[in-house]
Amino acid sequence: MSNKENSFWPFIVFMPIDVDKRALFLSTLFSSKIAIDVLRLFKWNEDLCQSDIVKSFRMHSNKTIIATLKKLVSLNILSEEYRFEERGKRRVKVKCYRLTELGKWYNLLFRDPQELDRDTVKIYLTEVVREFIERITNFASKFSIPQSSYIDIADIARTFLAKPRYKDFDVIVFGSNALDVYITHGYKAFFGGSGANVAVTLSRLGLKTGFASRFSTDVIGLQSAYSIAREGVDISLSVFDRNAEPSICSIVHGDKIKIECRYDRGRPPVVTELSEKLVEACRKAKAIYLGEGINSLYVKLIREIGGEKLIVYRPSAEAIQYFLEEVLSVFRQSPIVILNEDKAELFSRKGFDIPKTFYDHGIKHLIITLGSRGAKIYSYPQTEPKKIEAPQTEVLDPIGAGDIFSAVFIYMLLRGADIESATEKAVKTASASLSQLGPRKQIIISNLA
Ligand SMILES: Nc1ncnc2c1ncn2[C@@H]1O[C@H](COP(=O)(O)OP(=O)(O)O)[C@@H](O)[C@H]1O
Ligand SMILES: [Mg+2]
Known about the structure:
By secondary structure, the protein is α/β, with parallel strands linked by helices. The chain folds into two domains: 4-111, Orthogonal Bundle (Arc Repressor Mutant, subunit A); 154-448, 3-Layer(aba) Sandwich (UDP-N-acetylmuramoyl-L-alanine:D-glutamate ligase). It has helices at residues 19-30, 33-41, 50-56, 62-74, 101-109, 118-142, 153-161, 184-187, 194-204, 219-229, 276-284, 295-305, 317-322, 324-331, 341-349, 356-360, 401-414, 419-432, and strands spanning 48-49, 78-87, 90-99, 171-174, 178-182, 188-192, 209-212, 214-216, 239-241, 248-252, 258-262, 287-290, 310-313, 336-340, 365-369, 375-379, 386-388. The strands form four sheets. The chain has an eight-stranded mixed β-sheet, with helices on both faces. Helix 12 runs parallel beside helix 14 (324-331). Adenosine-5'-diphosphate binds at residues 340, 369-372, 374-375, 390, 393, 395, 398, 401-402, 405, 427, 430-431, 434.
């Protein structure tokens, strides 16, 4: 279907269910050039009166045209209506016609889609989808075919949302996706998930970003996927799991923010298996971000892709608490580590000396973000950190600060910045974003200059 003569449009035409009526319908409408010409004369929402129609067809007799109009009315393609018009002193009764809903479809069938205005095409496409699903559903239920056997939501999601966008990635993000419900600030819900926020920010910065996660295929999971894909992130590396439940987090603001997430422990909102496709994509990517997820999988991944590559690792608090050994195995691959103060504190409680124990396990660069106080950078073999101050800013909602920080940090490094200046920009941009409500804040580009 490459050249224009051979290309097809997705028309749906509605036909009578009764077979004989269907045959009559087809032969009446499609075998009559005049019927089609009359049909083509109409615009979607405009009436035409009999005299105007007759005038448009000088080659045909009035009788033929009137008979054709009658036929189109009987096929329910046109509706007719009498009107009174003033002609001089006389009031005359005239017959006028307009397209029925069905008629609009047939009218479209004989128009060049290229000539339709955008709004009409939009209405048309929406209707095509709606009508199509409705008809298919009715048809199937008549034959007792269960919906699940022909509508596979997971499959539809994959087709529409998870179309591969990029062949080569700048960065691939591993992490979670979630629905964040703010209990404070008047029960507002936002799509979030730390990894997803990072991916969205990287994509907004113009990087070819891939996101590896797990989506449930209910309304929440699909909307979550859409919220990420619409930002230009390639989610073809993610898993759509019809048996998974969505991850839903409640967030309570206060002196200390409380975040609690509920998800299926057996099917967490992260990837749990390394497909060959995923490994291959990572091999070709310029950078990898490893957020919350399965740490043993990260170890395996880094081993498989090998080589010199920017790897930024931001382990979750849960991983540090319950899977420390696996976290340390990731450390041995020498990623750049980003922690906030709470996570640094968890390491201290596990007996870690900062930065010595990190260096001992193979870390060359450790960045600890300090909220309102900015961040500090430890670079092997120095024991004293380099401190980066945060600017004083309005803070409405600090959720997602670390995600903005991480994304900007990676972006700057890929642009060739060194760790210190990347951290400076990351601090500045993260701090400036906190007057916005919600976990996925817009970056203020001027802070990157
Ligand atoms: N209250 C604040 N005032 C100014 N900047 C902040 C504040 N909280 C966070 N930031 C900025 O966001 C960055 C990351 O915040 P932080 O709270 O340390 O991470 P996380 O979001 O992972 O807990 C900080 O380095 C800082 O630049
Ligand atoms: Mg914080």
